[in-house]
Amino acid sequence: MGLESIIALVISGVALIWTIFRDKSGDNDELINRISMLEGKVSNQASDIDRLERGQDELEKSMASLQEQIHKLDIKIERILTILEENKKGQ
pLDDT of 28-43, one tens digit each? Predict the structure, then answer.
């Protein structure tokens, strides 16, 4: 083994020991901050989804009401057209 190999082994050994025994509390704090930020985003999105679902339900109800009103108007228009046709034939 050459001197370069020994130096490379020593450096890799020191790096291995450093990664095993280094202080990981900074990493833990960063992960906790990320998790709390993600939890906040998830709760905001959940409330947004609930609000949108309620809005969609209200829109569906109003659309059903509008369809009913349009149907009633169609029936009235058909009656008026029938009366006008009968009056035209009678004259």
Answer: 888 999 999 999 999 9
Three-class HEC string of 19-59: HHHCCCHHHHHHHHHHHHHHHHHHHHHHHHHHHHHHHHHHH
Q: Which amino acid is at 52?
A: L
Taking the model in full, what pTM does it have? 0.51
- Nearest-angstrom CA–CA distance, 63 and 27: 53
- Domain membership of residue 58 as a residue range: 28-90
Q: Is the pLDDT of residue 1 over 70?
A: no
Separation CA 14–CA 56 (nearest Å): 61
Domain count, the chain: 1
d(CA 36, CA 29): 11
pLDDT at 19 over 90: no
Residues 6+ apart with CB under 8 A from 31: none
**Residue at token pair 């020991």:** 17
